[in-house]
Amino acid sequence: MSSKIEVQRICQHCGNEFTAKTTVTQYCGDTCAKRAYKARIRAGKIERSKKETQKIKNQTIEELKAKEFLTVREVARLLNCSVRSAYHYIESGTIKAVNLKQRITRVKRSEIDKLFQ
Q1: N or C: which end of the chain has fewer CB within 10 A?
Q2: Apex 63 CA angle, 44 and 104, nearest 5
Q3: C-alpha closest to that of 26 among 14, 44, 38
């Protein structure tokens, strides 16, 4: 059962006009169909990767909110500022911190909460 329908369509991938033999044809040929398929697969992979990255970012912030004592880097991540800015806040007395050793500085989580009250 063959059809003698000829419909003028525009290819969804390359944008060229072509004569389709069915009413549901989207692409001008097999090459455009394969390229469009690969583009859809690639876009799906990129989207999944972005979602994973966003999930990891949100997960780390939730973990930081649960901790009692934070490092300066974690404080900077919570405040959404640079590490140098976090050190500046500590040095100026805006945030109280404790130096346990030369390179070990800890900030109590309640000190961060006091900033926003």
Answers
A1: N
A2: 125
A3: 14
